[in-house]
Design brief:
Layout: H1 3-15, H2 18-25, H3 29-43, E1 48-51, E2 54-57, H4 59-86, E3 91-98, H5 99-104, H6 106-116, E4 120-127, H7 129-137, E5 143-147, E6 155-163, E7 165-169, H8 183-186, E8 191-194, H9 199-210, E9 217-221, H10 224-232, E10 238-241, E11 252-255, E12 263-270, H11 277-286
Helix pairs in contact: 1-2, 1-3, 1-4, 2-3, 6-11
Amino acid sequence: MNIEALRGFLAVCRHGSFTEAAKSLYLTQPAVSQQIKAIEDELGAQLLEKRGRVFTLTPVGEEVRARAEEIFGCIDRMTEAVDDIKGLKRGRISVAASDTIVMYLFPKWLKIFRFAYPGITIYLTDRMSFRVEEMVLNGDSDLGLITMPPGSPDIVADKFHEEPLCLILPPGDPLAARSRIDLKTIASKPHIALGRGSTTRKLTESAFAAKGLDWPSSMELSGFEMIKRYVAAGFGAAIVPRMALKQGEGYIIRKMPQTFPKQELGIIWRKGRYISKPLQALIGIIKGGWGECPT
């Protein structure tokens, strides 16, 4: 059913006159009459009946008017909702991010976003980077935050940060006194590694392999908080992103050689996806300033 025909019908109901309805819609009277006839033809029932100079609604007309008012009420509310979303007043976005980003970076971004846009809800999910990519591809998440690179050609990626990787050693480890520590020396230490499948694990193994070195793990743990505790307890060394490290946690922090690769963190979305105003606002917050590796 033509929405403009319904608009014309409601105008006749409000004004009680085809002439006044036509004026209010900037149409001719025959045009409004044709709109009413089109609805009647489609429904197979009369909407209006004339009693003297006055038009009154038939029972069918009363029902159509009630439903038409509901329809235009919905349209008005839809328009208001869209305006709110465009104006960053209301809405909901879903974000999936790697475990490390969720734990160490996203809390401050979420705090800034909620303060600036209290009417917009962020639904956050943490997964390994390759799982985040799957969620974005499947439409389960509007935006993803991963350790680069993504694997699918259907993903658009925007690198927003290079994260240094640092060496952490047990307290009292003799390597801590050295000004420079090469990969061959690091590889002589027991290695506490992040679980298989993580991008950090792959990056570390590839960097050592490129130098012809193998640094087998003596432990595989699921998160950097556990890794830090076991290093501090003297069970081995580990390579950990700078963002996960703090002074005074019982381990020694040292920079990796300058040639050692950094983690590349990226924002991803499915190719062809519309980036809404709320998503644009969140991306703007994420692309903030960064510090240096603590020593």
